[in-house]
């Protein structure tokens, strides 16, 4: 059974949308996202706060992607499961990757005005999300063309990479969310105690 995707897997403000079709030689479309949809924080010029809010959303997407990548990895070891079972998990992953791509677009738009540590997190998100998009596309194309050969090492590699990248992204963005929370608490405590910032 062939998996036909209605929406492309795409990441970032200037990206190649991976329009996956059953034909391996299908050309990728080129799309650009708009400047990114501003969040409430951007209207108060709190771009650092906006980035931290988006990090939480990306973490949630990454956790969902990790869940589906984990299921997909367990399926890859079961020769009795058909391609459609795999395709369903890849469809979920595609949606989560696209959601991260939309959020990444906004992060890349505000990247130059956020803290250096936030810029590093944005770069990490971009790297992992693009790798996930590539591996999801490769896994889908492999399954579309060789639905009976999901036991082969090539397909297993795509699935293992998806799990590894989702795990890495969940961990790194989770750390960023935790750091942002601790930093905010620290600033609030300084304010409450009347401690002035050093010149």
Describe the structure.
With 199 residues, the protein is mainly α. It has a single domain (48-192), classed as Up-down Bundle (Four Helix Bundle (Hemerythrin (Met), subunit A)). Helix content is 65%, strand content 4%. It has four helices and two strands; from the N terminus they run ββαααα. The chain has a two-stranded antiparallel ribbon with strand order 1-2. Helix 1 packs antiparallel against helix 4. The longest helix is centred in the last third of the chain and has 41 residues, at 153-193. The protein is elongated and about 65 Å long. The relative contact order is 0.17. Residues 4-8 and 12-32 have low confidence and may be disordered.
Summarize the structure.
By secondary structure, the chain is mainly alpha-helical.
Q: What is the correct CATH architecture?
A: Up-down Bundle
Structural class: mainly alpha
Helix content bin: 55-70%
**What is the fold-level CATH name, i.e. the topology?**
Four Helix Bundle (Hemerythrin (Met), subunit A)
Report the order of strands and helices: EEHHHH
Radius of gyration: 19 Å
Shape: elongated
**Name of the top-level CATH class:** Mainly Alpha
Strand tally: 2
Instruction: Summarize the biggest pleated sheet.
Output: 2 strands, antiparallel
Please state roughly what percent of the residues sit in beta strands, choosing from under 5%, 5-15%, 15-25%, 25-35%, 35-45% or over 45%: under 5%
């Amino acid at each position: 059974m062939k998996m036909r995707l209605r929406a492309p897997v795409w990441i970032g403000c200037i990206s190649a949308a991976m329009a996956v079709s059953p034909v391996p030689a299908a050309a990728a479309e080129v799309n650009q996202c708009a400047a990114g949809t501003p969040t409430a924080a951007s209207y108060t010029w709190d771009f650092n706060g906006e980035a931290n809010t988006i990090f939480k959303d990306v973490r949630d997407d990454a956790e969902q992607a990790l869940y589906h990548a984990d299921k997909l990895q367990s399926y890859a070891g079961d020769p009795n499961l058909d391609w459609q079972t795999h395709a369903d998990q890849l469809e979920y992953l595609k949606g989560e990757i696209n959601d991260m791509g939309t959020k990444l677009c906004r992060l890349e738009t505000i990247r130059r005005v956020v803290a250096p540590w936030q810029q590093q997190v944005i770069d990490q998100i971009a790297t992992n999300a693009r790798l996930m998009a590539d591996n999801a596309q490769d896994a889908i194309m492999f399954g579309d063309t060789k639905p009976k050969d999901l036991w082969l090492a090539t397909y297993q590699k795509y699935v293992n990479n998806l799990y590894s990248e989702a795990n890495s992204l969940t961990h790194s963005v989770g750390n960023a969310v935790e750091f942002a929370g601790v930093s905010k608490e620290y600033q609030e405590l300084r304010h409450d105690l009347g401690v002035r910032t050093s010149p």
